[in-house]
Design goal:
With 250 residues, the chain is α/β, with parallel strands linked by helices. The protein contains five helices and 13 strands. The strands form three sheets. A nine-stranded mixed beta sheet has the order 2-1-3-4-13-12-11-8-9, with helices on both faces.
């Protein structure tokens, strides 16, 4: 007697990927994040450039964002807050918490989206010139960073303000000047690199690493500088972040 083959049921996970903004190689990042999703056959992703279609975005199970100077307004932030409280999980990368302007020839970070920044748990203010910096494990017992040791990475070392209670998993030390920015000088302080911002039954996982320079006009695409995207530790953090995103859907 023939037996029926075992059929594995694949539970679909709807993902909203939000990628857009200035001063970064958004095309490269979009491809990288879609490739990350492709490693889990359950994920079905829709791609957005902003939060205008908030009614659609908040039907997703998970959100991943990589933006710069692209923010949700108060109504959209309220919808995201409700989605998080109901158990949504959001992996926010790099400049998602950045608003930018120019004052007297320097970069400023105007506080024009306070509800959005409070939701994310932090807001960007400045970074020193690009270079390698040390990242330390702030909570070695948490599974998202368990087994990791301090490491150096070449990226923009993000400095800013904490806007809500957060659980810091990775952090870095900085003291000194940030000459391109209005904010500063900075006294000795530790700044979050990876943290959790819990809200209701859901949470935001924020990773400040991940700068990617777009190729200069007239150069080959291969000449673009993708900074920590090309380092194994960053790829490991992305994989762990994806694992955290889908954990509640397993």
């Amino acid at each position: 007697m023939m037996t029926s083959p075992t059929i594995e049921v694949c539970t679909k996970i709807d993902a909203a990927l939000i990628v857009s903004g200035r001063f970064h190689d958004m095309d490269y990042v979009r491809r990288q994040l879609l490739d990350l999703f492709a490693g889990d056959p359950r994920i079905r992703a829709r791609v957005f450039e902003d939060y205008e279609e908030i009614e659609v975005i908040t039907t997703a199970d998970i959100i991943v964002s990589y933006t710069c100077d692209v923010v949700a307004d108060e109504k959209q932030s309220a919808a995201l807050r409700g989605w998080l409280k109901q158990g949504g999980r959001w992996f926010a990368l790099h400049a998602t918490n950045a608003t930018l302007d120019w004052v007297d020839g320097k970069v400023a970070s105007p506080d024009r989206a306070p509800a959005f920044m409070e939701l994310l748990g932090s807001s960007f203010a400045a970074h020193p010139p690009m270079g390698r910096y040390r990242v330390d494990v702030a909570d070695p017992d948490h599974w998202l960073v368990k087994g990791l040791e301090s490491f150096e990475v070449r990226d923009e070392q993000y400095l800013g303000s904490i806007r809500a209670p957060i659980h810091i998993l990775l952090d870095s030390h900085f003291e000194g000047e940030t000459p391109r920015f209005q904010a500063g000088p900075w006294s000795a302080k530790r700044h979050p690199v990876l943290y959790l911002r819990e809200l209701g039954r859901g949470a935001v996982l924020y990773l400040t690493m991940g700068h990617s320079f777009p190729p200069s006009e007239g150069t080959n695409v291969e000449e673009a500088d993708h900074c920590s995207w090309e380092e194994p530790i960053f790829q490991e953090l992305l994989r762990r972040g994806l694992g955290w995103l889908v954990e509640r859907n397993e």
